[in-house]
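Exercise 7. Predict the structure of UDP-N-acetylglucosamine transporter from Anopheles merus.
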Amino acid sequence: MKVTAAHGNNLKYLSLVTLTLQNAILGLSMRYGRTRPGDLFLSSTAVVMAELVKLATSLVLVYLEEGKHFGRLRAALHQTIVKQPLDTLKICVPSMLYIIQNNLLYVSASHLDAATYQVTYQLKILTTAVFAVLILRRRLLPTQWAALVLLVVGVASVQLAQTGEDSGTAATRQQSMPAGDGPEQNRLLGFSAALGACFLSGLAGIYFEKMLKGADISIWMRNIQLSLLSLPFGLLTCAVNDGAQLAARGFFFGYDAFVVYLVVLQAVGGLIVAVVVKYADNILKGFATSLAIIISCVASIYLFDFSLSLQFTVGAGLVIGSIFLYGYDPAAAKGAKPGVRPSAKALAEAEERLLAEKV
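Solution. The predicted structure, encoded as tokens:
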């Protein structure tokens, strides 16, 4: 019994570290990748490559699930994708939304410092909650509504802290970029892109969660479906947004070891989180997100000349508080018994929500 409890605690600590590092490092890496000196890679191609890596990784995982047997893997893919065309067609909607969302996140990371990006992207909690009420008819607790109000106030405070400074102040200096080929900084564009990404994240996540109800398909097979159907949309986005540059410079222009690392981090990091997040409760997820915001702020001070103002600190604090408040369930806290494992149904529902979030 002690061994089991110790093992459970170790898994919780592992999930805390993994979630924190994934949240913090990805935002910082995306910002650095879009502002560093040198040739600037096309973000639309990075999104496509991340989906390709995710597809290959998920195929390997399903192959292992099927007992390392290619025949069973082929049969499973045929049964899930080919023999269920309607189900596959439904996946096209979130696949397209996720591709647009990931492209918008690159736009946001190009124009917002890592700390502001990290705080602003927490608005996905608001959009997810709104769509859960509208589409799933889910009822929110009074504490959750209060948390959403705190979240909006916090993000607004952070944005006002940035836009309220005149040119030449610390807030302007923090948006300055190293000499290179990066895009000219436009805070409004970055904020709008983050809002768009939050909106699409909420819509796609809830749509996907509604689809997953009752479906007997593993999380890795769902990832194969998503990535497989995301690739055509991703290539179309490349052609529409960057067709001229692709023709002139090529698909892998600006790629180096760091871009490869960024692509792998975005693809495989999310899959690793999918493994450990089932061991994290709402409080642990709140700690992970809060630590990621703090790490992003501290790292931005040293990496991007970020200057921490009092208003930004207050806004970030409100966002962190809203995250904990939204995940807090008074009834569950009173009725919870130590050492009691969640039911299989609860675990299944948690996995559905996890996949719908598409970390």
